[in-house]
Design a protein that fits this description.
The chain is α+β, with helices and mostly antiparallel strands and 602 residues long. The chain has 15 helices and 21 strands.
Length: 602
Amino acid sequence: MNTAYALGFASLWRAIFYRIGIKLGLNKVKKISAHIETGNFFELPENLFNTKLKVNTQWCNQQCFFGWKVVNSTDIPNWHQSVLTSAEIEQPHLSWWSIPDFSPELGDIKGVWEASRFDWVLCFAQQASQGDETALNKLNLWLNDWSIHNPPYQGANWKCGQEASIRIMHLAMAAIILKQHDKSSVSLISFVNAHLQRILPTISYAVAQNNNHGTSEAAALFIGGSWLTLLNEPGGDVFYQQGRQWLENRAKHLIEEDGSFSQYSTTYHRVMLDSYSMAEVWRLKLALPVFSVKLKSKLQLATNWLYQFTQFDSGDVPNLGANDGARLLPLTDTDYRDFRPAVQLASVLFNHKKAWSQKGDWDLPLQWLSIEQPNSVLEAQSSSHFKNGGYCILRKGKTMALLNYPEFKFRPSQCDALHVDFWLNGENLLRDAGTYSYNAGDEHIEYFGGTAGHNTVQFDDKEQMPRLSRFLLGNWLNLHGVAELKNEKVLQSCQAGYQTKDGSHRRCLQLTDNALIVEDNINQFTNKATLRWRLASGDWRLTGNTATNGKHQLTIEPQELIKNIVLVEGQESRYYYQKQATPVLEVEFHQACSIKSVYQYV
């Protein structure tokens, strides 16, 4: 009941009402019908442009999924086959609501959805805008093939409203790149209309999730509806008005006053921000009325949040919270974990300032979408305290330390309370295990999303919060004591804590010129407490109470209270459905005490 109360009864009611409506056939989504016309979706531009811009090569003579899995093929993808497991949908033309959410035979359904997110649409459009007729023909061929093999509302690729929304957003950005958003073809119009009909009847369910489903689907309705209206197609204004309303609503309710987002995840924060960026780009191109001052303010805050987390040297961010492999606007062939293009675009759109003045591939989305770049630049990154989301960031020179503490207004997805991330020169030295997969077996969900997957303390081998389902934890933790951040010239520090029936943990971070010092006060546990530090890969060796890779060293004190200390082989997932071994230092204590971990670097 406590978890239900925390989720919010309005959200629970929306979700329950949706499921009842689908099961009993009351939801309008089961009564709609549509047809997608075949033919040319796009034409070769009359005047070539963007001829000097770099295209995303990740779909040139190959296919690239989840930012890492490359298939050396130029063939049309099998839209019903998983790129992760190679398993195929057995009955691809079932009505989408007849397809189960999770199938042991198929495995992770995201492996099927990935090719139908249309990343390739953007890549082919980039090439076509530079006069590549082969790329244009390929773009139209693949879109027609998708439409033929995925008739409206049949098959797994129609199952999720967010997946349908991502297709709409990518097609709209491709139309902007090709400068054809104001003269779209019959095929494209019918495609957009069929998708909007799928999205609108289930938007309440997306909203009930209090996550990026609502923001993505709102953006698609806003973009697609105004697109139809521009082309004098009937019904477009209904979609547009609904999309605009929910874009405002979701920003108001899901983005906190410090810019934190409801999902406590850097990846999903980027998904949300990219959705709003595409909506704003589209608004500018069509000269639609501006969004509210409140919405713009929230997006400025959300942009600053992700800016503060991003390492300029690498573009990488802490692998915080759920990571499902999503990158919604792949207009560059930079690495999936490079967040700079998303931050630069959002900063220019919402702050009217560049995040970074230096020139780089992070400017490409602005250039491809013909967004004018301002001269002004954001203030330099600094130590920051996001009290609404529960994050303390310490910055000193080229180092950054993050303390993640439990301040839950929305549902957490991982047991990562008091997790610490540590970075030097853009390299992640103390790191999060990641997510790996949502449907690869309970052991993966429990390990990667559990306490052992994070740099924190575990009491008596119990999870910080019990897992009720794949996406829901119970008995949400509460902050115990005041979370504080001190930003001084000589020393940067922050602290926070929590207490449960299984134990009490308070953690303090200090960042000096050559060390990260973490002090843990632990008590009220029954038998043992296990402290874990998940290290960057390398030749780590343990001598006494010190682990070293020859360049850095991590020392645990006091040595006399350590009952067991060992370097073990753990697992981490930096990309969805990819995992590799990583060294983990595990330290066991059998009594209440104060622990000091000192990570020294050069």
